[in-house]
Structure formats: structure tokens, C-alpha cells
UniProtKB/TrEMBL annotation:
InterPro entries: Transpos_ISL3, Transposase_DDE, Transposase_Znf. This is ISL3 family transposase. Residues 29-71 form the Transposase IS204/IS1001/IS1096/IS1165 zinc-finger domain. It comes from Azohydromonas lata. Residues 150-250 form the Transposase IS204/IS1001/IS1096/IS1165 DDE domain.
Length: 355
């Protein structure tokens, strides 16, 4: 990084909480930014202090020597100029490009305040508003691919008051655009700039359908699964709410049928003797029970063979079992049940436990 701008590390100081790296200049000549004439007539030098990415758990400051040269072109209005170090740090900036890039990546991923908090943990000092200011200056990263299959839906900036439209690239599963408004005109303006769009997944409202029909008439419109299910659920709820009397009657009949099925014919029918019905097992429980049955059968077979005088090696070979497994079976006092698996550790669990 320093070599690219003709610098070399001359010394460093980590006596304090910050690592300060002095970088001397090896630049013997530079081009005048005004007339582009090369000059090696040294005029002076100064130190430019910029923050760099942290290292060895310490914040890093680069004290970079910058040389000034006299312009040798008598016709140039510029008398002196500094050598260029733009590949290290942008003009007027106090952070190196790679530090700015690191903070920007955090900002794109997390937003202002969260990025600032994580940056502090990583040894980079920056405030939330600074992160946001830099993101506004940098703008949205340009998409590397043109969207072909997109999803369009509205989102609430302030629920019940202001809504926008979010556009998602459904092939890359990434949001690619936020539009201010959820009316057809807003979407039409954006869609007209996207000639590659072939499939548009949308909700079942009219605005987005009109927009897609106007701006991308050849694109296939698809009602997305979430909205179909949500609409179905809402319609079913409305249907049920329309006939509460019939609903109660159906529930009463269903309860009675269940109770009758649960009571054996010869037992008296007093409510106190009603046997509760056993809930059907879930698929995973059925699989678990089946696996336990297999393991139990293997255990009993291994124990039987061992009592008949077979060696552990012979049992393992005959039953295609590991010798350790056979040994654990034959030395156990009873069928060794599988140990319950402990819940998986997660960052959230650790954080909660630490508090
Ligand atoms: Zn010049």
C-alpha cells in the first residue's frame, strides 16, 4: 500500500494506545497538477497524519511524509505543488482509502449507528452520522447484473402514513431499489429503465399490475406465493366470521364425535370416565421411535451372541458393528438410551448467558 505512493516505513511508536507509523517519502520528482511538467526541484516537506485500519488491537495513525516541488515551467501559474498520494488517501480526507472502504462496507450492511458500534469493537473510531454521510456521498453500489426476475412490494416508512416500494432481484435474493411511493407512476418510471425484466412477482393490488402492464407489457406477471396464501387466509377468516352460529355448532359436533370415538363400547359413558384421545405422533417422533426399535434389536442380538460365548470381534463382524459399540452393548447393565442432545450454542444464547 505504501510502496504504491513511493513511501516506506521509517519508524513506529506503540508506546501509547495508538500505533503511530512514520512513512518517509522516496519520491524524487512529481508532475505538476496544473501543467503536467515533471519537476525534481524540492521545495519542502510536511507530515500528513491519517487514520488507517487497526492492527494488533491498536488504532493506527500513518504519519506520511509528503514532499512539495517547485514547478519548473515558467509559464505555469502554479509555483509549488505537493506530490500525489490519492491511491493512499483522498484529498482532504483524514482516513486512508482502505479504512473508508471498511467502514463503508459496515455501513452498507448495518446502517449508521449499528455500523459505528461494530466499528468501535473492531478498533475503528467513527460515529453513526459520519457513516451515513459517507454512504450518501458514495451512493448505492451499482448492480453488477441486470435484473430479469424481480419482486415488487410496498413497505412502510411510517406505518399508516408513508409507504414506498421495494424491488428485489429474485434470482440473487437481493433488494435492488427503494422507490419513494407505491403508486403506479413511480414504478412505471423505474421499470422503463429495466428492459431486461422478464418476470414480475407482485401482490394482487391493481397499482403494480397497471405499472407492469404499462412499462413492461411483455413481462410475465406472477402473483407471489406469500400474497396468495395471505389472501386465502383472509378470505377464509372472513367466510368463517360470516357464520359464527354454524361454526359453534360444527365445533360442538366435532367435540362430541371425538369423545364418542375415545370411549370404549363396554365402559360407562359418564364424563368422568372419558379417556383422552392420544394425539398422533409427529413424523420426527415416528422416525425417532423407529430408530430406537432398530437399535434395541441390535442391542438384544449382541447381548444374546455374547452370552452364547461369541467374542466382541466376532459379534462386530457378524453384525457389521463397530467393536466399541458392541463393547458398550455387552457391558451395559441395561439398554443404553441415546443421550438427549444439548441445544445448539448460538451467539444470542452466549450473549444472554453472559448478562
Ligand atoms: Zn506547473
Amino acid at each position: 500500500m505504501l510502496d504504491a505512493v513511493g513511501k516506506h516505513v521509517s519508524s513506529w511508536d506503540d508506546s501509547g494506545s495508538r500505533l503511530v507509523v512514520d512513512a518517509g517519502s522516496l519520491v524524487q520528482s512529481a508532475a505538476c497538477p496544473r501543467c503536467t511538467c515533471s519537476s525534481s526541484r524540492l521545495h519542502g516537506r510536511y507530515r500528513r497524519r491519517v487514520a488507517d485500519c487497526p492492527s494488533f488491537d491498536q488504532a493506527v495513525t500513518l504519519a506520511v511524509e509528503v514532499r512539495r516541488f517547485k514547478c519548473v515551467n515558467p509559464g505555469c501559474p502554479r509555483r509549488t505543488f505537493s506530490e500525489r498520494v490519492e491511491t493512499l488517501v483522498a484529498a482532504g480526507q483524514r482516513r486512508t482509502l482502505r479504512l473508508v472502504e471498511a467502514m463503508r462496507s459496515l455501513g452498507y450492511a448495518l446502517g449508521g449507528e449499528a455500523a459505528a458500534q461494530l466499528a468501535a469493537c473492531l478498533g475503528m473510531r467513527v460515529s453513526g452520522p459520519t457513516v451515513l454521510r459517507d454512504l450518501r456521498r458514495a451512493g448505492c453500489p451499482l448492480p453488477t447484473t441486470v435484473p430479469v426476475v424481480i419482486g415488487i412490494d410496498d413497505w412502510a416508512m411510517a406505518r399508516g402514513h408513508r409507504y414506498g416500494t421495494i424491488v428485489v432481484d429474485l434470482e440473487r435474493h437481493l433488494p435492488i431499489e427503494l422507490l419513494a411511493g407505491r403508486d403506479a407512476a413511480t414504478v412505471v418510471t423505474w421499470l422503463k429503465e429495466q428492459p431486461a425484466v422478464k418476470v414480475i412477482a407482485r401482490d394482487r393490488s391493481g397499482a403494480y399490475a397497471d405499472a407492469a402492464r404499462t412499462a413492461a407489457p411483455d413481462a410475465q406477471q406472477v402473483a407471489d406465493r406469500w400474497h396468495l396464501l395471505a389472501n386465502l387466509r383472509d378470505a377464509f377468516e372472513r367466510l368463517l366470521l360470516r357464520c359464527p352460529g354454524k361454526l359453534k355448532e360444527a365445533a360442538r359436533q366435532a367435540t362430541e364425535t371425538l369423545q364418542l370415538e375415545a370411549i370404549p363400547a363396554e365402559t360407562p359413558t359418564e364424563p368422568a370416565d372419558v379417556v383422552p384421545t392420544e394425539l398422533p405422533l409427529k413424523a420426527c417422533q415416528r422416525q425417532s421411535n423407529a430408530r430406537r426399535e432398530c437399535r434395541l434389536a441390535r442391542y438384544e442380538e449382541a447381548v444374546r451372541r455374547h452370552r452364547a460365548g461369541e467374542s466382541i470381534r466376532a459379534i462386530g463382524q457378524a453384525m457389521n458393528l463397530d467393536r466399541c459399540t458392541v463393547r458398550s452393548f455387552v457391558h451395559a447393565d441395561a439398554f443404553p438410551e441415546r443421550a438427549q442432545r444439548a441445544p445448539a450454542s448460538s451467539l444470542l444464547r452466549k450473549t444472554v448467558a453472559a448478562r
